[in-house]
Fold Alpha/beta-hydrolase.
Amino acid sequence: MLQDGISYDIHQLFVSLPTGVSLEADLLKPNGLDENGCKLAICLHPWSWLGGQKDDPVLASLVDPLLERKYYVLRYNSRSVGKSTGFSSFTGFSEAEDLKALVQWALSQIENITSVVFIGYSHGSLISTLHPALPAPIRTSHVLLSYPLGPRGWLTLFRTSYYQDQLEGLLKDDRSNILAIFGDGDEFTSISSYKEWTEKLKEAVQGSDRLRIVEIENASHFWRGRSGLELGQVLRRWLP
């Protein structure tokens, strides 16, 4: 297939996992892979209870930057979404176990993966932080896009402290790299809350350059118009 001048192959999959569910997924393979190894991006969609699914338009807008940088792109419907089986949880813990199993499946299917990037949007960013850094020599990165700080409590059945602890654990892990992107017009989290939160993240990472925080002016939770273009540019510059 050809998208904006970028050539790639797409495989529509139904992946059976040891967690007992089968997930509907798309695997996009860029043509002209890097001889030094393969890179994989895994996209996690917003909350299924509010209509989140693998073809989310914000995540779709990030496919071009990923393919340009020769990333395989794996996007999937979480349990109970679309044709994926199982039942969604209120804590996100079952979805996190599915993610871990899906990563192991991908590592078994794609040879010589040297870099894995988790791109979580909204609720998907919460789930992504429950996946730890992978063993060396694989480089692990997380993109937290519109992290839903405001509604985090009720999105996780009030496991706020657990999710914050897991995120800070990633920040303290020398194998981990994190990009947090949010807009100052987010409908669910005030900019003052984001600023307070990012100060805590900076304390956890202790001055390391493994954390990058990007605030985009006038961007909402839904990244419409110009802010969506800026989002793509930020990702292009940051991708390992």
The two ends are 25 Å apart (CA to CA). The CA atoms of residues 156 and 200 lie 20 Å apart. The longest helix spans residues 93-109.
